[in-house]
Amino acid sequence: MKKISSYIWEYKFSYLAAIASLLAAVTLDMMGPRLMALVVDDVIVGGNIGELKILLLGFLGVGVGRCIFQYAKEYTFDKNSIRISGDMRRDLFRHIQGLSADFFDRTNTGELMARVKEDIDRIWDAIGYVGMLLIEVIYHTSIILISMYVINWKLALLPTAAMLLCGTVALIMERKLGQVYEEISEENAALNTVAEENLAGVRTVKAFAREKYEIGKFLSHNKRYYDLNMQQSKVFVRYYPFFSVVSKVLPILTILLGGGFVIGGEMTLGQMTAFVEYSTNIVWPMEMLGWLTNSFSAAVASNKKVRKIYEEKPTIVETADPVRIEQVAGKICFDHVSFHKADMYEILHDISFTVEVGKTLGIMGATGAGKTSIVQLLQRMYDATEGAIYLDDVDIRELSLEQLRTSVSYVMQDVFLFSDTINDNIKLGKKECLDFKTVRRASVQAQASGFIERMEEAYDTVIGERGVGLSGGQKQRISIARALAKRDPILVMDDSTSALDMETEQMIQQTLKELGNTTKIIIAHRISAVCHADEIIVLENGAIAERGTHEELLARRGLYYETYESQYGEIPERMAQKEAGQQQAADTGQERRTDKGGETYGCQLV
User: Looking at the predicted structure, is the pLDDT value of residue 364 above 80?
Assistant: First the structure.
């Protein structure tokens, strides 16, 4: 993580200009009491009316100068802090994007949102307005104290003691607020997580009539957030009145003690007037000290939270000099691959298979058998704990992540569509090089063009967050179109036709058969989705229990056979007997389906 000072250093000249404007504005402001002292001593007491015009011009010059430098100070500090906060938010987001999948397994979205937004905003406040005021308070106080000591060092001891006392109280308050703000930051992340989850899953909440429970859960976090903010407020209120009392009593004590010095001849009336005005001006830093301490403590706590994110390092990293395959063909080889996550049982055990270029591998198995983990390992979302995975005979750990992942079109089990147009969702991954003709062709192949073109805006229709408003099957077809549009050498479909009817699924299977140069991995629960694969593997408890073609696995009468029987309701032999006498049923596509060219692409019965 870059230090905040490093960000500031990038804009050092602009900050120097802002600080120079600040010093000029404060210096001009401190000239006012000196001019007032001359008015009292020379004009009012001394009767030198001729100096009044010059002194009034001096007041005018001070006022105009302060306006110019105050504007330059405020604008430059704001501009710099906005730039730096933008840079920090950009760098933090890039760092988060670069972290591996295991980080997101254990980190809530709401927490990351809190770090990227609220915590960066607090740091922005600290290096902008709050930082400016801190510098101004320090310089302002220093100038006033110097001016007071020049006028009368004895009387200056009074505001010095008051400032030291206020500084001590501010340090005590900062320590108490620092701890509270850390807890507030944590609870803010938790509150964001609850809100984000419930708003994203509001339809599920309503479907199960869980509104009351979810509102109660949100209110419990909201109450905790309220209590912490009240705790912070109590600390602030407990100490802030001290600054107010000191700021009100100090001018009065200055007048009383200063009056004695004037009577004793140690000060002139003009010096006394200037000193009282200085004591009034020093009140402002005292009053600001509590508020500045409050804001600075919040920024420090937020910076600690951001630094914790930066302490996270990606577990999946490229080699220093990655291999570059000139043209990825798509051959995949798993060589005795085993995998388990930290502190978890083994997910995959001794998985070995090879998929030649243009061939199809079907993967079946019960929920939790490790089917999706195979794809995650192929894309290096995680690294295998044992064995190796090869792409075109090159260990994927030696490839760049970009080339590896852009070689695989992945239709995910959990379809994610962005709140954007259908056209841009399909072009995702290759927006720069995909034209509308390609998008439409992919939509036709995915059987999505029909419902898309019936929409009022067609491909320019903006779909809601995560595809709200579309059915499950429509979302799956757009996701399939997105993968087909990329034309990558490897296509992975992870249970991506589960929401489709049998007829639509078979049409998509025909499209997949036509992708002769594309290596395909089809993960499914339906026999119909994998039966045409060149090889099918059946996973059980993370290991390969059976492998072979559709016909070979049926003949083996194992897990695949049992799945077939459960899905079709009858064992294959009985269905084959019925087939001989029920040609019409065979032609409807329930058991066999023939395209216009006469090619059979349904599952053959054995």
Answer: yes
Sheet containing 535-540, strands listed edge to edge, beginning at the edge strand earlier in sequence:
408-411, 490-494, 519-523, 360-365, 535-540, 543-548
Mind giving me the DSSP string for 285-348?
HHHHHHHHHHHHHHHHHHHHHHHHHHH---SS---SS-B--SS----EEEEEEEEE-TTS-EEE
Closest of 420, 418, 422, 414 to residue 446, by C-alpha? 422
Amino acid identity, position 197: E
**Both tokens of residue 246?**
């000191």
Rg (CA), the chain: 37
Residue 515 — φ and ψ, nearest 5°?
-85, 75
Q: Is the dihedral of CA 147, 153, 157, 158 positive or negative?
A: negative
pLDDT in tens, 471-481: 777 777 888 88
- The tokens for 389 are 């995975």
> Contact at 8 Å (CB) between 147 and 278?
yes
**H-run or E-run covering 106:** none
Half-sphere exposure of 167 (CA within 13 A, CB side): 10
Q: Which CATH class is domain 4-311?
A: mainly alpha
**pLDDT range class, residue 582, cuts 50, 70, 90:** very low
Higher pLDDT, 534 or 282: 534
Task: Read off the pLDDT band of 287 (50, 70, 90).
Answer: low
Look up residue 59 and give its two tokens: 């007041």
Q: Could you tell me the CA-to-CA distances from 441 to 214, 423, 458, 511 in Å, in that order?
A: 44, 12, 14, 11
Pairing verdict, β 535-540 and 543-548: antiparallel
DSSP 605: P
All residues at 6 or more sequence positions from 501 whose CB lies less than 8 Å from its CB, including other chains: 473
Burial of 326: CB neighbours in 10 Å, binned 0-12, 13-18, 19+: exposed
Distance CA 259, CA 281 (A): 19
Residue pLDDT, tens place only, 413-457: 777 777 777 787 777 766 667 778 888 888 888 777 878 888 777
What integer best gives the mean pLDDT of the chain? 77
The encoded tokens of residue 192 equal 């964001």
**Distance of alpha carbon 146 from the chain centroid:** 49
For 488, the enclosing helix (H) or strand (E) is none
What per-residue string of b and e applies to 63-76 under the rule 16 or more CB within 10 Å gives b?
eebbeebbebbbeb
Among the listed ranges 217-221, 289-293, 350-354, which one has the minimum average pLDDT value? 289-293
Whole-Å CA distances, 302 to 113, 185, 355, 402, 594: 13, 7, 50, 33, 64
Say what the pTM is. 0.65
Cβ-Cβ contacts under 8 Å for 569 (sequence gap 6 or more): none
Domain ranges of the chain: 4-311, 332-553
Residue-level length of the chain: 606
Residue 524 DSSP SS3: coil
Span 332-553 CATH architecture: 3-Layer(aba) Sandwich (3.40)
Q: Are 491 and 512 in contact (CB under 8 A)?
A: yes
Task: Specify the DSSP class assigned to residue 45.
Answer: I
* Residue 482: band (very low, low, confident or very high) from pLDDT cuts 50, 70, 90: confident
